[in-house]
Amino acid sequence: MIRPIKLRRKRVLIDVDTQKDFLVASGSACIKNHRRVLMNIRRAYAWARIKHIRVVSTALCKASRNGDNLCIIGREGQKKVSYTLRHKRFIFEADNSTDIARDLFTRFDQIILNKRCENPFDEPRAERLLTELKADEFIVIGAIAEGAVAATVLGLLQRGKRVVVLTDAIGAIDRHAADVAFRKMKAKGAILAETKNIAGSTHLHTAGVCDCKLCKASEKEENLQTQTSA
Ligand SMILES: [Zn+2]
């Protein structure tokens, strides 16, 4: 019997695949309404930082094969969006080992689990870590709703965890499929909430990581507001 991983804090932020391919306009599978989702992801991270809440992130990490263009190792799109990285982080490469040091969360604020497939529970180490992780509440953000987020949430629920899904900090590519996925998560026991219910509102309006016209325009607006209020 392996001793469970203990957390001093009661809540943990589960960040699913917040990578450029999903979240910025130039990514190979950009979600709908990326500007708003990015704002909420940023807000959730700011909240986690202030409250000293630990983060477990998953990151899709694939070898280039068959002309596939999504989250390929070494490419820009595979990288995580800048503000989803904590300073004290530990990264696990995807391999078939299940080794996890017991004191990881006393030394790091963020564990990043690279995975070769959508479902983290198909990846041996991610499966073990998510299964053994003890927290009163798992708060989930990321992408994409109808894919990795659904697999992560349903897997956590199956393992008896209490899961809060921040629907406005989660991106979708197919809105209909995402709605179906959210309904399924709720039916299985997940609590659906908005980011402001947990993290409150903030002055962080823009994404700051995407170069598309929409994001740039709102960044300008934010700078103007900051200047006027200063
Ligand atoms: Zn953008």
Q: Could you explain how this protein is built, in words?
A:
- The protein is of the alpha/beta class.
- The protein has one domain (11-229): Isochorismatase-like (Rossmann fold).
- It is built from eight helices and seven strands.
- Strands 3-4-2-1-5-6-7 form a seven-stranded parallel sheet.
- Strand 3 (89-92), helix 3 (104-107) and strand 4 form a beta-alpha-beta unit.
- Helix 5 (145-158) runs parallel beside helix 6.
- It is globular.
- The mean pLDDT is 91.
- The site of zinc ion (ZN) has 8 residues, from helix 2 and helix 8.
List keywords for this structure.
single chain, 230 residues, alpha/beta, Rossmann fold, 8 helices, 7 strands, binds zinc ion
Binned strand content: 15-25%
Helix content: 25-40%
The parts where pLDDT drops under 50 for at least 5 residues are none
In this entry the ligands are: zinc ion
- Please write the string of helix (H) and strand (E) elements: EHHEEHEHEHEHEHH
- Overall number of structural domains: 1
Going across the major beta sheet, what is the strand order? 3-4-2-1-5-6-7
Largest sheet: 7 strands, parallel
Shape assignment: globular
**SSE-based structural type:** alpha/beta
CATH superfamily: Isochorismatase-like
Radius of gyration: 17 Å
Query: What is the CA-CA span between the terminal residues?
Result: 57 Å
**Helix count from the secondary structure assignment:** 8
Text of the CATH class: Alpha Beta
How many strands appear in the DSSP assignment? 7
Query: What is the architecture at the second tier of CATH?
Result: 3-Layer(aba) Sandwich
Q: Per CATH, what is the topology? A: Rossmann fold
The chain-level mean pLDDT equals: 91
